[in-house]
Please model this.
Amino acid sequence: MRPAFWARLRFQVLGGILLAAVLPYAVRLMANPVASDLVLLNNTLLGTITAIVIGGWLMRNVAPYPGSEGLASTLPSLGVAFGGLLIVFVFGRIPYNRVNLSAGFVLAASWFFLISALVQRRQQLRIGIVPLGNVAQIQEIPNVSWQVLQSPDQDISNIDAIAIDLRADLPDDWDRRLADYALQRVPVYHTKHLIESLTGRVELEHLSENSFGSLEPRPDYMMLKFAIDWIAALILGIVLLPLLLFIALLIKMTSKGPALFRQQRIGYQGKPFTVYKFRTMKVASDNAGDARNLAITREKDDRITPLGRFLRKSRLDELPQILNVLKGEMSWIGPRPEAEVLSRWYEQEIPFYRYRHIVRPGIAGWAQVCQGHVAEVDDVRSKLHYDFYYIKRYSPWIDLLIVVRTVRTMMTGYGAR
Model:
């Protein structure tokens, strides 16, 4: 079965060229058709087309795994292509139009990300499974047509890729067959890695199991991210101050109690800190229940005020955490911090739970955009696997992917309670 036309690289690259190279060129040409600008525009057009072709090829070949890993490769692949183009322009002293080049990168990144998300959502992969080793779990993943290969000689002409547990002891005939697959350019995926990419989750077997051979994520990016977080929080805090004051006034006018909600949570390196949010619930009485139940937000919780429901759905209730970012207690992106009473409970019930404190907690997180709000231990265990995936893939690229998905979440209200 041939893939749909919109799933083919040729269509994706052509669409990117028309949207990100030809469209800005035509708009600029109609707005200012001066002969002196024509050389700049032509150079930028040809360069942008080249960068899009190279970026599309990199996306298809550098990160062959489908799912989250494929989406996360969009920005770095285009970044390398357009970065290389900029180097050629600057060091080659080739005149170019900065506005068109910047617009081309933004439009190309948006196009490839959206089309890749569409392909992954609507195209059902056909993956053959070599029935050796630990392969039972992978067949439970939905939206994939799994086919168990009974022998190395089985016809795979209708299969897109092969999944196999590469840690298993393979018979000689399967070893030879895997070499044949590689020569035929048939993708062969390690089952554990494929599960992580398709689900966006990592189920840790050992604490040392991350991408860098160390328990601690990349310290260079952690320091850079801290600086970017602080500068962004300072700027946005000033810009959004009128909105923050207006929301606080609305809360005071519509329900009794303070505008801000303060709660002890567990943060970076397992240290408690006070998180700030806009209050979205009625103020609890002293005898309303035990601390653990009070900390859990249930589905259709009747404690939530009408205004609070809107603030939760739009995620505007999280804005006061800008103060937590300025204090160095939180990041914009990271695992969501849990209430101290819940965190202590989860630590007793779930192995490795404390490992999520290896990075600063965030206002938005991978688990939040993939799964939404959860509270029960079994659901938290599943959410923890998303946190581990984020820590394992700790990089600017997954942070940018979370930003894009957070915008979608704010528009749809997915996961809010």
